[in-house]
Every structure is written in C-alpha cells, then in structure tokens.
Amino acid sequence: MNYPRLDIDCDKIHHNAQFLIAQLSLKNISVTPVTKVFLGHPLIAQVLIDAGAKMLADSRIENLQKMTESGISIPKMLIRTPMLSQVASVIKYCDMSLNSEIEVIQKLAYAAKQHNCQHEIIVMVELGDLREGVMPNRVIDFIREIISLPNITIKGIGTNLACRYGVAPDDQKMNILSDLADRIEATFGISLEIISGGNSTSVNWALQRTGLTRVNNLRIGEAIFLGCEPLEHENIKGLHTDAVSLTAEVIESKIKPTLPWGSRGLNAFGEKESLQDRGEVSQAIVALGRQDVCVSGLKAPNGIKIMTSTSDHLVLESSQKPLFVGEKVTFSLDYSALLSSMSSRYIHKYFKAPKGKRKEEGAHDATNNCNSLRQCYA
Ligand SMILES: *Cc1c(COP(=O)(O)O)cnc(C)c1O
What we know:
It is a single chain. This protein is an alpha/beta fold. It has helices spanning 10-25, 42-50, 61-69, 87-93, 102-114, 139-146, 171-188, 203-208, 222-226, 335-343, 373-377; strands at 5-9, 30-33, 56-58, 76-78, 96-99, 119-124, 152-158, 194-196, 217-220, 228-229, 234-235, 244-257, 280-287, 298-299, 304-309, 313-318, 328-333, 348-352, 364-365. The chain folds into two domains: 10-227, TIM Barrel; 244-258 and 278-368, Beta Barrel (Elongation Factor Tu (Ef-tu), domain 3), CATH 2.40.30. The strands form four sheets. Strands 1, 12, 13, 14, 15, 16, 17, 18 and 19 form a nine-stranded mixed sheet that branches. The protein has a six-stranded parallel sheet with strand order 3-4-5-6-7-8. A two-stranded parallel ribbon has the order 2-9. 44% of the residues are buried. Pyridoxal-5'-phosphate is lined by residues 34, 36, 59, 79, 160, 199-200, 219-223, 230.
C-alpha cells in the first residue's frame, strides 16, 4: 500500500449520481455529470454512465480526449469557453461546448466545416456572479451574429452561478434565463433544447422548486462526488458524503512545547502566526503537505487538529493518546482538497471498483497507469 492515498468508493459515487439523476428527472431536469475534479478519469466516467448519465462534461479538453480514447463514447460537453488556440481539438473531442465569445464560435464553425461535422453550442448568459457569460441585454444581438454560421447548432442557453461571488441560483435568476429562451425562440424561430441552470449550487433550488421554469439541465460535479451543496456547505439528504478520503502516514511523533524559540522572522511561506503558550503538546508530523493538497480543505478525525502545513509536512496535535510513527490518519476532503489531491502526482489513487466489477477484494493503485478501464480494474 502506498501513501498518501486517496480512496475513492465507486459504489457511493454511483449511488449519488443515480439518486440525483432520479430526483431531478422528477423535476424534468437532466443531469450532466462534471468529471473535472477526477481529471476525466475513465473509471469514474463509466460509473456515471452506469448510473444513468447520457452526457458527460469537463472543463479540460485533455480530460475529454482521455475519456474518448478510453472508449467512453457518450456525448461530451466542454464547460469552459474554448481557447481560440484549441478549437480544432474542441471539434475533435467534444460534441458540445459552452460559449460566450463570437470570435470563438466563428472559429468553431470554421473548424467544424473543415471536419465536415456539426458542433453544438450553449450560449452562456451572465446572471450576476460575474464569471463567464454574455450580458442578458446583449444575448439577442449575440445570437443574431452566430445564427447563420455553418456547422454550428445553437442547442440552448445556460448560466453559471455561485463560483466567483457565491451569487445564489433562485427563481428570479432562473426566470430571467427562461424568459430569455422564450425571446430567442420568438425572435429567431428556433427552438432551444437545453436550458442549463448551473452547477451543484443549483441542486437545492431544483429539488425544492415549485414554480415552472424552462431550466431542464444542470451540470453537476461536487454534489455527486461529495454529497454536498457548495453554497451553504450543507450535506444533501440521501447522498453519501464520504465517497472519498485521504490517508497519510505519521513520520514523527513527540511531546513538544507550543512556543518556538530563537528570534523569529517569516516562515517558509512568508507567514507569521501569533502564538500563545499552551505548554507541552503531543505533536505529530504526517507525510503530506502543500505540494500534495490544498490543506485548508482537509478535515482531521475527532481529537486531532491540523496545526500547520509546509511543502511536505502536516503538523498535527492530538488531544487524546499520542499518534505513533507509522500510524495512518484519514482526513475528509472538500472540493478544493479533492481537486488538488487528484491533480497531484504524489498522491496514490485507489479506486474501489463497483460491486460486480471487482476482480479481487481491495483496490488497485491507479496513480500512474490508468489509461484504460481494464488497467484500472486489473
Ligand atoms: C465546474 C463547473 C461545473 C460543476 O460544478 P460543481 O460545483 O462541481 O457542480 C458546472 N459548470 C461549469 C461551467 C463549471 O465550470
């Protein structure tokens, strides 16, 4: 077994995805699972498909390419506005993309024509969180400029909220999106198939909504993988919140004073903490640091507190019995901790394969050699 290790329970992810797909379909909303936090891992993609996903979304073309090359053949959506410099691969590796720039869509049209294929786009609308999207009063003119481009299908409109400023999705925002869809259809005589109302932060709105809007799609990552609604950091009822965990190993454990001694400047990261003397404590170091994970997103088990992190060391204090050298400590993760640990090549990833797909008990270290499903489950 290699450490630090990220354990990923595919059955729990399967349950969460299936649950959300079922609950939201009762509200006439389709779920497009977002794979970016797992770097488009084909094993996770397959779990999501088995749970009922009809399309997958990712923010990185590399991830969409990896899925395609691993045999994941359902339609794929690029959810970050394409770079002008990558339109050729966008055409090649995805069926649909979210867009907010005319110049990009023109280039997509040109590339799609050259490839003799059709590319679908969703026009993103700015609804106040001030990340991507066309300003609402500019949308009609925007559509007018792209409507006759060859090889481009305007599949719908969408929005993204609560990422930059935590601006909440609510009836008012979703009605603006709905009304815009109606106006676009009336103005241009087209019909918009997808009205995509946001990310995991829209789940509670969608589950509780009573009034009808035209929103019929959400792009969901965090809620599926962590069982959590990001806006209020609340768990979603019916979902597993422990599908992933991070385990690291203790490399030193000693009784030490709480106050450093010697003249003090800034620490290795330019920080200076103010301290108070709490006497002697039971201090342990685990082999995990800022090079591996966004430490502020980790939660230690009861009785253990994360005190400080440096590049390679996480300093803990335990209020109960001291940790011992070689002991393993398991942390829970928030979205940024999962994103960073999946992206770190120092963290070993263990996928607990879904029931029925397990060849042997236990999990397999899929850190470095997992480009095909067969390898992952080996
Ligand atoms: C990341 C992302 C999502 C998914 O966000 P979650 O909070 O993980 O559900 C949806 N849409 C866009 C545009 C994104 O960038």
